[in-house]
Amino acid sequence: MSYKQIKWMIIILPTLAVGLWEYMRHTFLMPYISMDAGNILSPIFVFLISITLLSRLFRLLEHVQEELNKERAEKASVQARDLIARELHDGIAQSLFLLSVKIDKAESGKSSLSEQERFRDIRKTVHEVNRYVRQSIANLRFPSAIHEPVYEDTMKSRIEHTAKETLVSPRIEWSIPDTVLSTKEKVELLACIREALMNIHKHAQATQVAVSGQGEGQSWQVHIDDNGKGITQNPFDLSDRYGLRIMKERAEELQWGIKIIALERGSRIEINKEADSL
Predict the structure, then answer these.
(1) Can you give 160-177 as a three-state secondary structure string?
(2) Is the pTM of this model over 0.70?
(3) Can you name the residues that pair with 211 across neighbouring β-strands?
(4) How far is it, in rounded angstroms, from Cα 213 to Cα 222?
(5) Closest to 247 (Cα-Cα) out of 190, 201, 207
(6) What's the DSSP call for residue 265?
(7) Residue range 59-97, pLDDT digits in tens
(8) Could you tell me the CA-to-CA distances from 115 to 95, 105, 106, 120, 127 in Å, in that order?
(9) Domain extents for the chain?
(10) Over the stretch 129-151, which tens digit does the pLDDT of each residue have?
(11) 153-278 belongs to which homologous superfamily?
């Protein structure tokens, strides 16, 4: 029963009950109940209606009001999280990306091995800070505390949003139920997909990208495919691919399998979880 219906029931029920009582008293009960007795019974009758029917309606009204207040609070919390996440992304995350680009330019103009090594260390630090910032953004978008409301957005919608951030337009086929992924798994898996899409945008020179997820329960598999220039060696072994190495660390921390596979045209990043990987 809706909030509006309950209010109308509270207004109408006493009126109908008293009207019905008065009609019956004057039409059928006059020979048996005197006028004075009827006047005494009328407030008693209204009191009994209030105790039985109206008290239940008031409890329903209070419950509905609590649900509405809870929904408003949850919506305000989600909006606040999204606002902070956008500010982090538009401010700190993009500043870190710009700093990384400047470091790359500065490093390319240096020939000393010691200076290049220092630049690599600085770049690694920037990538680490960038990882923490993006982790914070993901945590804001996917509340991790048990008492927090469940975030309404689906993984598929979040992947679509992430793709826009990385300037990649993938074809998405997602059938992994959101309920089989914990909040931490959603955060980490989304971060891995983001890093994979960013790597494709930077290095693969691909014209087609596809993200797919299949599985259910404790066993699932995610593929990020592209038709780019492919790979000639394991990118995880390259010294300058900090993002990929961080992605691998994320997956291994959760005991997921992760590998990069050369396709006939392009490459595939595969992330999987087996039922016994707990």
Answers:
(1) HHHHHHCCCCCEEEECCC
(2) no
(3) 172, 224
(4) 4
(5) 190
(6) S
(7) 888 888 888 888 887 777 777 767 676 666 666 766 777
(8) 23, 13, 10, 9, 18
(9) 3-71, 153-278
(10) 766 676 666 666 665 444 444 44
(11) Histidine kinase-like ATPase, C-terminal domain (3.30.565.10)
